[in-house]
Amino acid sequence: MATPTLNLPVSAAAKPVKIKKWKRGTVSPGTYGALGFMVFLSAFPFYWMFVVASNGSDAIAKIPPALVPGNTFGDVVQEINDMVPFWQAITNTIFVATVISVFNVFFSALAGFALAKLRMPGKKQMLTFIIGTMMLPAQLGVIFMFMVMSWLNWINDFRALIVPAIVGAFGVFWMRQIVDSQIPNELLEAAKIDGASVFRTFMNIVVPAILPASFVLGLFTFLGVWNDYLWPSLVLNDANRYTVQVAITALNQSYVINYARNMAAALLGTAPLLILFIFVGRRLVAGVMDGAVKG
Amino acid sequence: MARRHIVATVIGSALVLGALVAAPSQAAPKVTLQVWGFGNVFEPNIVMKYGMIKGNKSWETLQQSLIKKKKLKVLNPNVTLVISGGGSQPDAAYFKLSAALPGNAAPDVAAVEMAYMGQTRVKSTANQFIDLNTYGANKIKGEYLPFRYEQGLSANGKQIGIPTDVGGLAVAYRTDLFKKAGLPTARASVAKLWPTWEKFIATGKKFQAKSSAAFIDSSGNMFQAILNQGTSKYSNPKTKKYDYVRAGSGFKSFAISNPAVKRAFKLTADAGCTSRKNGKCSGSIGTKIPQYNTGWGAAIEKNAFATVLAPAWALDYITQFAPKSRGKWDVAAAPGVGGNLGGSMLTIPKKADNIDAAWKFIKWYLAPTQQLDTFKQYKLFPTTYKLYKQPAIKNYKDRFFNNAPLGVIYANSAIKLKPILAGPLDRAIDNQYGAALSRVSFGNQTKVERGCKAKAQTTEAAWCQAVSDIGRLGLSGK
Amino acid sequence: MGRTKQVSAIARQDRIGLLYVAPFFVHFLLFGAIPIVFTTFLAFFNADMDLYYEFMDTFDPGVLGNAFIGFDNFRELGSDPYFWLALKNTFSIWAISTIPQLIVAFGIASLLANPNLRASVFWRTLLMVPNITSVLAVAIVFQQIFDRDFGMVNTLLYYVGRGPVEWTNETLPSHFAIAMMIDWRWLGYNSLIFLAAILAIPRELYESASLDGASRWQVTRFVTIPQLRNTITFMVVIGTIGGLGLFVEPLIYGGSYDGGANNQFLTMTLYLYKNAFLNMRLGYGAAIGVGITIVVIVVSIVNFLITRRIASEDSK
User: Fold this and answer.
1) Chains touching C by CB (3 or more pairs below 8 Å)
2) How far apart, in whole angstroms, are the C-alpha atoms of residue A257 and residue B431?
3) Could you give the ipTM of this predicted complex?
4) Which tens digits make up the pLDDT trace of C301-312?
């Protein structure tokens, strides 16, 4: 339902009437209470992981249940390492995720720039097509992809993770939006008239301007790769090549299920991201909110 | 100028890609065996005697430290063993293996879970494996339990696998809880309580009338245990056909028509649901706690149930998960005759790179000496049955289980079994029957198939749905 | 050099952009289109492991010819009660997770939008933390929290004198538990999206509303919410595509491809994997994949139509 208020022209603010500032109200303690509660809910599972992981297995059946961390966390971590090379898995994941992120950002930026600013035939159709591919369920191709990887002898090989992920529709679309909104056309036209090549324009004008956004896209890609579960667990069989999620799966899906061990593994697998988050959390939040407005 | 730049970038990125794509090739004079397992098929303390471990860091470190301390001399330092899939679950492991078989990624040695041997022994799949008879498997045939060895025989007469351990089957029971409920506690008299499965269930009801604990941890396990004591499961031993046919074709698959299957189903359902309230299951001789996890261990220590249907390897899980129950257990013979749960086969894919070395490794790993060693260290019961007469097994007892003569009990259960013809959909059918049985005991058999003359929640309704679901698995009669 | 000539030279130069977009398209062809086309093709065959082995050994198209069964897989799919059950479950879990989530996320965003809020960056950042946690880790933790015998939730219920809830064995409780996993992970993220949209609403709208003497509720109802229509649509679209592909949560939660013994939380993708990987019916699995794609397309079209209606309503 459209109300008259909605149809006010934007220039309303320019009216020479002195507007009494609309009272949004001060912050009630209830607001902090509610936000505090949400943060508690967000943090609780992490705390719980640590409680179960550090109390040893029999603690879960205690009445009342253990609510504070115990002292066996180190033992459980040792146990995990005896079963799967977890530190190796973390190194592997960092490697794979970094390579994919760098490629994805580079290719996405190139394509995004072309789609946003260059005059090419069929540009609009291309963009529609790219957005359309995002709708396709990724699981559909898994069977075939697995056969191809097997045929290429890429089972247990990081190439099976990297090559299919080096560029994606989301990244291209995201970069197009960023370039479109952050780079004024005049700047590009000027560069062209100065005789700069397209690639040089890209490197000298576009890249510096989109670096912060590229960083956010890289982070998202990194997180996505880190948390990917199905594909790596299909193509990696050699424990030495496991990524973090595959290592967690190997513990979780064995015949023997040990809660303390599983929770410790889930926590260990998340910890590097939590540490990373301390440094980049603000930028990630800014990226999410930026993307929301432009999307 | 511009163009050169672009070409340079494109070539540049192509080069980086190329570096990724080009396989790092290392000319190695030594042999590296790719070994794919799951669960605990390959035990570290045993395999590290054979060759140099690579891949699993903790095994590698252990091996290195033992070598340094001169406590270990590796038999074949030129052989590197890359053992993958340890701890993983058999379904995932088999899918990976089956998809990798015809490709270049096929391993040198692959472990196959018994539930999947049926699919593996079908002609087209069996052709993806080496016939071990051409490498002299028939010379070692006599060492192994005949029923386990025959499970490695393919439909077209190839020996594609050599058996690892045998589960065997016995009942581990809690003497303290039995005593409180007024049941005998001595193993011989306990075994006499349940010569048959019917008597086992009756004992369970009797026990529960006098105890707050459940009788058994999970009644669902009975289904497989009962079937494995028979001579046929889902494939007809007479026609030797895996006659699963799509539902609606009017043909009755043996997986459905076999009376042994129906009997095992009914018995397990009776155990899973001993009383009903408003038609819905309200009592059972088992708990609903899933096996072999932390909750299961905690439940043992809280005296939640009194028995476990235990293959030899499960005893190890009891000690691991419920260390505080030490000394409260004893072990008696299982109902029926003999018994087995679990086990696997070692195979060599046709596309393996090092067939000779793979065969040498399998022969060594499954030879009596190593199987005895495995038993001593990991409680996996040997398939090389001549060992059963050796004192190490004959006199094997465990204090945790009240000094029960485990060696004799498990040897007796393993030696009595007969071969059962396995078919390609065994695992999938197992799953459907398993789901149907848990629907009965959890009281969520809400569906009644069309044409099924039964009420919701009944065993019969669950059976009808299982039959229809199995028909849906669909495989033309091959 | 004439101006027009220069422009057309630039335009020609711009065509180099085709080279820049090429990596995406080549990549999509190899790792997106071909697998999907192949899968669709496979759906017309009685493809099992036998066929796979025979074909890989011989590369003989004749082998394929014998396995061609036309539309049989699709006919079976149409009458397969489990596919329809999976569709129903998928939508049920989607609805249980999405609707409350949008409401709560909007509430949180409204709180965060308060310009007088202290440490606003701190709150925003903390709310984002669950989103970086892997689905697998979330599923493992929630599986334990909702454990029937030893779980946190049932223990709490026990203390308030309520019997154990069958969080896995009954349909609605299991859908709720899985929805909780999804919500926990996405609530903060969606709050931030809402927040961004709220902050982007021109202040003038609020100011004139306050001039008109609108109450807080009226401002929300007549200013904020209409301005958020596009955001809501965006979230629903993204949520739907994610929701239709749901499978890691139910897989870990139930520990099998069945989605519970009574298939009470069997989802479409889970059913695909069950057929393709566990029952080794590759062809039928492929047909399910095509079925899922059709559902996604239908839902997308519905979404599109709704969006367009909202858009045209706005411009009225």
Assistant:
1) A, B
2) 19
3) 0.86
4) 887 787 777 655
